[in-house]
Amino acid sequence: MSAALAEKLRALQRQAGKERPLPVPLPRGERGWGDGTTSPQPPRPQVPENIRRLLGLRTRTLAAVPSTPRVLDRHLPGEEIAPGLRYFESRHEAPPLPAMLDASFAKGFDTVEAARLLCFDTETTGLSGGTGTRAFMVGASDLVDGQLRIRQLLSTTLAAETAMLEAFAGWLEPGTVLVSYNGRSYDAPLLKARYRLARLPCPVTPLAHLDLLHPVRRRYRGQWENCRLATVERRLLRVLREDDLPGSEAPRAWRDYLQGGPATDLRRVLAHNHTDVRSLLQLLTHLAEAAPTQARSAERPG
Question: How far apart are CA 282 and CA 229, in angstroms?
Fold first, then answer.
């Protein structure tokens, strides 16, 4: 409003006896009263809480409450014997094995000395084999001082594989007899490939290898639904695994741990491997005890 126009309006108001102050111009974008003060903003209507819940609206807060950081369970048993390599050992009651076992149930074997037996099993990054598959865990059981000794090696980093292979080689002697379940077709070839890729001498190749899968298949194929080790444990050894992590889940559990995840499932892999190598010696004992009876049955005329 121009000053001349404002003066004319005041003159008219004086003549009418209704003079009042004109509004003071305010900066653009502001509203105010005639006395130059800024008009207060009307309060925003509040939606009742029950209506907010019905509409699915969230209550806005001035400041977000900080969440408690989640603490991951990364604990693994045993001790670290090399960077990224853990070692576990336990002792148990040994099965009733004679000093010399009748191993005639397996082709190419007659008798074996119990003290030379080493049952072993690996957990790997895949089930298809090949040079891209590596073993991240090796378990073994043998007889020491009248007890069953179970040892396990676990790589917690990719770089620890060589240290694991060297440690396992230290468990083997020229007269060691390896015992496995499908190890001649899977575990042994895999280890041989890993030793070759690591440019280490392979201690597995020159050793005698007693694979218990083939005697079990000859004896129980057609009688059981399958000849998996878990089936052998349930039907023959009366061993029932509880909270067992299937072997097919082992690669995923290891990868999760390497990527910073919890150690919960990796500990279950350790328990799975522990049961495997313990069951191997029990199965060997059963087959050795049944070998003379089976031999007599085969010689009996039909």
Answer: 12
Longest dimension (CA), the chain: 144
What number is the average pLDDT over the span 3-9? 73
Q: How high is the pLDDT of residue 302?
A: 46
For β-strands 117-124 and 177-180, DSSP reports them as parallel
pLDDT, residue 138, reads 98
Adjacent-strand bridge partners of 88: 152
What CA–CA distance (Å, rounded) separates 178 from 212?
A: 11
Give 14: exposed, middle or buried? Use CB within 10 Å, 0-12, 13-18, 19+.
exposed
For the segment 136-160, the average pLDDT, to the nearest whole number, is 96
More confident residue, 175 or 1: 175
58: three-class secondary structure by DSSP: coil
Query: Pick from 136, 215, 134: which is nearest to 179 by CA?
Result: 215
pLDDT at 84 over 60: yes
**Contact, 216 vs 223, CB < 8 A?**
no
Pairing of strands 135-144, 117-124: antiparallel
Q: How many residues does the chain have?
A: 302
**pLDDT band at residue 19, thresholds of 50, 70 and 90?**
low
Instruction: Tell which phi-psi region holds residue 73, choosing left (phi > 0), alpha (psi between -120 and 50) or beta.
Output: beta
Both structure tokens of 185: 């077709």
* H helical segments located in 30-140: 49-55
* Higher per-residue confidence, 214 vs 11: 214
Whether the pTM exceeds 0.85: the reply is no
Instruction: Classify the phi-psi angles of 239: left when phi > 0, otherwise alpha if psi is within -120 to 50, otherwise beta.
Output: beta
Report whether 279 contacts 232 (CB < 8 A). yes
